[in-house]
Structure formats: C-alpha cells, structure tokens
Write a structure and sequence with these properties.
The protein is an alpha+beta fold. 39% of the residues lie in helices and 21% in strands. It is globular, with a radius of gyration of 13 Å.
Length: 95
C-alpha cells in the first residue's frame, strides 16, 4: 500500500468512531470475531485498546491485522485503523 493510499484511508477514518474495543481480556475470540464481522461489512474500521487492557496497543493491532488478513493503516496512542478490501470494494483507493 502506498503512502498516498494510507493518507486517504487515514482521512476517512479520522471522523469514524471505534467499532471494536479491546478490554482487559485482550484479544479474545469474541473480539476477533467482532472485528472480522465489522471489517467484512465496512472495509475500514477503527479499533481501540481500553486503558484497563494489559496489552501493548501496537503489538495488539499488528496481531489483529495478521489474524484478519488486513492492513494496519495507522496507530495513534490506543487507537488503530485497519483496512481490508472486498472483492468489489466500496472504498476506491487512489493510484
């Protein structure tokens, strides 16, 4: 993914609310299933690691992206943005 495409996705995600929350249980199966359903429906999701979570946010976002087969677009503090294109994408990335 090019820098231009990442900037485009970051701009889209800036106004989105976090749809997946990772709490004190860390990356549980239910969290992964929820993230999988959300990214399948939306293509672009924002994930938040709550303050009471005993995990490192950056490592957690990378692990979740690997589990979902998604691209980690951005990490800022406890928030991360993941992108996974559909076969017929709704979000058209710039070239």
């Amino acid at each position: 993914m090019t820098g231009k495409q990442k900037r485009f996705l970051r701009a889209l995600a800036s106004t989105m609310p976090a749809v997946v929350m990772i709490g004190k249980g860390g990356l549980e199966a239910s969290v992964v299933d929820s993230a999988r359903a959300a990214i399948t429906a939306r293509e672009l999701i924002k994930v938040k690691v709550l303050n009471n979570a005993p995990v490192d946010p950056t490592d957690t976002f990378e692990e979740l992206a690997d589990m979902l087969g998604a691209e980690l677009v951005q990490v800022i503090g406890h928030n991360g943005v993941l992108y996974k294109a559909k076969k017929e994408p709704k979000i058209i990335l710039p070239q």
